[in-house]
Amino acid sequence: MCRLCKIVAGVGLAVCLFSSDAFADPLSGRQAKKLLVKPKGAVVEVLPHDFLSDQDAQVLVAVGVQQKYYGAIAMAPDEGLASKATVAGADFHSLDPAKTFALKGCDAARNGGASCVIVALIRPKGWKETGFQLSLDATVAFKKSYLRSGKPRIFAISQLTGKYAISNGDGAEDAAITACDADDCEIVISD
């Protein structure tokens, strides 16, 4: 599921899937449906930094809105936006893992100088803090697959990789965890 690329000459963007905050008890499908945003695209918040020009901010917004939420873009302050060290993570279940991914990739690619910083955040249109969120792909799968599958049904996600899986019927819990295919998969929705 993970995809990685770099901003090249201010046009490309790295993307990767990641995950949401942990929940003590799984939500019901009805609870999750009320908390999730409608999948209508992304908005980009450019964070203020002295080294970002107005043109850099415009490029970040133009490229960022084409990405899947939740995401973050990191940049090496001494290298400029077109540097191979400009890295983003997108299609995560929340911002924190996206920021971690972007910073780690940026710092690994930079040529020295100041440590990388987050320069932009990618959220869904209409976002508000609800305490539960899924990536764009997982939100679409929830609405198109999970809600239409028979019971019992399970939705599992990985906090570290952004992977997710839906399973239903006998053995749904084990099947969802196995299909999620990451060491940290957990059940977040159950009916």
Please characterize this protein's 3D structure:
- By secondary structure, the chain is an alpha+beta fold.
- It has a domain at 136-190.
- The chain contains five helices and seven strands, in the order αβαββαβαββαβ.
- The chain has helices spanning 29-35, 54-64, 95-109, 136-144, 172-180; strands spanning 42-46, 71-75, 87-89, 117-124, 153-158, 164-168, 185-190.
- Strands 1-4-2-3 form a four-stranded antiparallel sheet. Strands 6-5-7 form a three-stranded antiparallel sheet, sandwiched between helices.
- Strand 5 (153-158) and strand 6 (164-168) form a beta hairpin.
- The longest helix is centred in the middle third of the chain and has 15 residues, at 95-109.
- 46% of the residues are buried.
Helicity level, as a percent range?
25-40%
Order of helices and strands: HEHEEHEHEEHE
Could you tell me the number of beta strands? 7
Structural category: alpha+beta
The rounded Rg comes to 17 Å
Percent of residues in beta strands: 15-25%
Q: Strand arrangement, largest sheet?
A: 1-4-2-3
Summed over residues and divided by their number, the pLDDT gives a mean of 87
User: How many DSSP helices?
Assistant: 5
End-to-end Cα distance, whole Å, is 26 Å
Sum up the overall morphology in one term. elongated
List the uncertain runs. Answer: 1-23
Instruction: Let me know the largest β-sheet.
Output: 4 strands, antiparallel
Any chance you could write out the topology, listing elements then pairs?
Blueprint: H1 29-35, E1 42-46, H2 54-64, E2 71-75, E3 87-89, H3 95-109, E4 117-124, H4 136-144, E5 153-158, E6 164-168, H5 172-180, E7 185-190
Antiparallel strand pairs: 1-4, 2-3, 2-4, 5-6, 5-7
